[in-house]
Amino acid sequence: MLVSTKEIEVRYAETDQMGVVYHANYLVWMELGRTQLIKDLGFSYAQMEQDGVISPVIDINVTYKKPLRYGEVATIQTWIETYDGFRVVYGYKVLTPDEEIALIGSSSHVCVKKENFKPIIIRKKYPEWHQAYEDAKKQGE
Q1: Interval 27-52: pLDDT, tens
Q2: Active-site annotation holds for 98
Q3: 81, 133 in Cβ contact below 8 A?
Q4: From the candidates 16, 59, 84, 135, which is the catalytic residue?
Q5: Which CATH number goes with the domain that contains 112?
Q6: Is residue 136 assigned to a domain?
């Protein structure tokens, strides 16, 4: 499978009183990783939104393993865990500078029309995305 990588320098504002990254900020980083994966596949989520299609999170799961602190660099790894032409589940690992796992997680998404939230089938509306997602899952097998 294709694994996309994005590095983030931990900013002071992302930490809590314990001096570690506040848990909700990891969700933002997961979104950055997901956007990077889409970009690495040659597409633009912003363009999809301009077409009137959005991709809401319908489920999210995270497990925190190690803290990250201000000034450290986090590495977000993102891949397509499962995809069926309609629903996509992205997998994530956030690594510490020592390459230890700080977080493992996943998020599930569907695509819907922005004006009415009616689901669309990705493989029909965006056949080029569909093929790229299928290929990304198979890469490295």
Answers
A1: 999 999 999 999 999 999 999 999 99
A2: no
A3: no
A4: 16
A5: 3.10.129.10
A6: no
